[in-house]
Amino acid sequence: TRTSISPGEMFLMVPEHVIAAPNISRVWFATTRQNHRMLSVHRNFAAMTGTHEAMSMTEVDLWVARHLPRPPTDARVSIRPMRPGEKKRIANAASREYGAETALGLALNAEALELRKLAKSCAAVGLERSRRIDVVLVDNTPTLCMIHEHTTRGACLSGLINATWILPLTRYRDEPGSKSNIAFTSAIAALGREADEPSRLVVVPASLPRQPMLDAGLEVGMELSMFVLNRSGLRRYLDFIKKKYGDAGNPKEANRAAS
Questions:
Q1: What is the pTM of this model?
Q2: Taking the CB of residue 68, how many other CB atoms lie within 10 A of it?
Q3: pLDDT tens digits for range 65-85
Q4: Which residues contact 125 (CB under 8 A, 6 or more apart)?
Q5: CA-CA distances (angstroms) from residue 148 to 66, 196, 231?
Q6: Could you tell me the strand order of the sheet in which 200-205 lies?
């Protein structure tokens, strides 16, 4: 009797489960940008799949705040909870920054932004899932938002949905004294963490400047490539992976089957 499964088998279980679940429209996952082998596999699939919306990719950086920075002191800056009328603005910013398909996969479209359906589905299987969004204003202009993700500890091994995602609401201007830089610095300084976490994870688009994070004492965690597959893409992806690695996710098995 087997008491364990291979990493390849576990890898294949996810798309097989999602395909069998009609209420799931997209799946997203991430790999480090240093994992050249897996990046090559995913990029080869994207090139072969035929339609760009089957798989989308964006780059983000994961930072670690072990010691919380000091609260913001700039009198031009204020931070408050998102208002209902700002959902569309945040959704448009996510689509611009990450791409439309990735924004949908991350539930950053206006209809799903508050995660009501997802929270209900997670609660049905005993898991917590929630999101809180704060807006950073400079001179009363919404400039950036902080998306605080929460789920049951251990449900997301990477910690990406127990993290604060920082998203510019306007085109980022990396210039001294710009509203973008002021808002970014203030958002980092306003970071908080949950009672049971030793540090706070922070996810930012890879295009954002690194110096404000370093100046605040944050540490580089991982450089990530993030992928989103729709249902059509997921079926093609599963077929692609099985042809490449075999039904057990093992390249040796695939080679034997082809010989």
A1: 0.87
A2: 16
A3: 887 766 666 889 999 999 999
A4: none
A5: 17, 15, 27
A6: 26-32, 219-230, 55-65, 200-205, 163-168, 141-151, 129-138, 77-81
